[in-house]
Amino acid sequence: MYLSLGQAAKEAGVAKSTISKALSSGKLSYREKNPEGYKIDPAELFRVYPRTTKTSAEDTAENDWQQGHSGAETIPYSAKFEIQLAGLKSLIAEKDRRISDLETDRAQLREDRHRLTENWQDERVRLLKLLEDQTGTLKLLTDERSKLVAEVQRTFWQRVFGRKPAVAA
Questions:
Q1: Strands 37-39 and 65-67
Q2: Contact at 8 Å (CB) between 32 and 39?
Q3: How far is CA 79 from the centre of its chain?
Q4: How far is CA 161 from the centre of its chain?
Q5: Which of 145, 146, 129 lies closest to 137, judged by CA?
Q6: What pTM, to 2 d.p., does this model score?
Q7: What is the pLDDT of residues 137-168, one digit of tens each?
Q8: How far apart (Å, rounded) are the C-alpha atoms in residues 28 and 37?
């Protein structure tokens, strides 16, 4: 009897990708590869990956009844799954509650960000208007004639002889 890739991984206690890499590198040989997959000889598999010993938990998985922790009390196998299912449902409910809390927090943060952005933009407009007013006041208080002299272009001869242009009054 030959093992498939998944069966070999389960028997060796490793991932399918580990078995696949061993097959492609030549570390582990196989009988044949067909459209259904690899056919791996168990002896070859256990040569490369020693057989993992089965624990008592795996042995009881084959049985329909399992002993409880006290030893004298027995719990049906399906009851164990019902208990696990109830635990998982409570975990899912807790996760859903946390997700809804996080979504609420996220919505609140978005509102805060939006409000802060609007406040920032209003403050920016206010400061720009104040800056324009201050600039206008400064222009009224400063002498603009010096700028006019600097703006008047010197002629070629004035530049050659280093003369300043005449100021128009």
A1: unpaired
A2: yes
A3: 38
A4: 71
A5: 129
A6: 0.34
A7: 887 777 666 666 666 677 888 888 877 766 65
A8: 15
